[in-house]
């Protein structure tokens, strides 16, 4: 196979990726976009992204009154969004849509509260296009807050 017939790999954006660059990768928007910045990414390998947790963003208003805690399902969603960005950067034709197909072995180790910065990391453990499998976690101040295995269909 000559170089001209090989599919072009997407161009890696400059790191860190700001919110505008992230929005070019995934369709999520406020208030459901749960990534503020991508710190590093390597196609088909891994990604590191962050989300600053603020009481004013509205996600914590009812969970729980007087003791706000980031819902576990939103922590997993943030991890999944980071994995979707990685899928976008890894997919040879760019990303049209990324659909979460499985969440397994989710473990929550510590609460995430206003003022925390969640660091989402995901790494590709297997790739069989159009499917990707990821091992991922969320840390706060170097402590694991959540860990999960994900798979996604990327078309």
Compact overview of the structure:
With 155 residues, the chain is α+β, with helices and mostly antiparallel strands. The protein has 2 helices and 6 strands; from the N terminus they run H-E-E-H-E-E-E-E.
Question: What attributes characterize this protein structure?
Answer:
Thiol Ester Dehydrase, Chain A, 6 strands, alpha+beta, 6-stranded antiparallel sheet, single chain, 155 residues, 2 helices, 37% strand
- Based on CA inertia axes, which overall geometry fits? globular
β-strand percent reads 35-45%
**Strand arrangement across the biggest beta sheet:** 1-2-4-5-6-3
Helical stretch tally? 2
- First-last Cα distance: 24 Å
CATH architecture: Roll
Quick one: CATH superfamily? Hotdog Thioesterase
Structural class: alpha+beta
Mean of pLDDT: 90
For the biggest sheet, the summary is: 6 strands, antiparallel
């Amino acid at each position: 196979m000559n170089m001209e017939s090989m599919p072009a790999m997407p161009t890696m954006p400059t790191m860190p990726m700001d919110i505008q660059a992230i929005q070019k990768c995934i369709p999520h928007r406020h208030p459901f976009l749960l990534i503020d910045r991508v710190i590093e990414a390597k196609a088909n390998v891994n990604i590191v992204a962050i989300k600053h947790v603020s009481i004013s963003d509205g996600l914590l208003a009812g969970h729980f009154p007087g003791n706000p805690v980031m819902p576990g399902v939103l922590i997993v969603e943030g991890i999944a969004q980071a994995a979707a960005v990685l899928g976008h950067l890894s997919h040879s034709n760019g990303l049209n849509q990324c659909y979460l197909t499985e969440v397994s072995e989710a473990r929550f180790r510590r609460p995430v509260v206003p003022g925390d910065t969640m660091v989402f990391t995901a790494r590709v453990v297997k790739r069989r296009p159009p499917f990707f499998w990821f091992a991922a976690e969320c840390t706060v101040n170097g402590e694991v807050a959540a860990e999960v295995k994900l798979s996604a269909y990327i078309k």
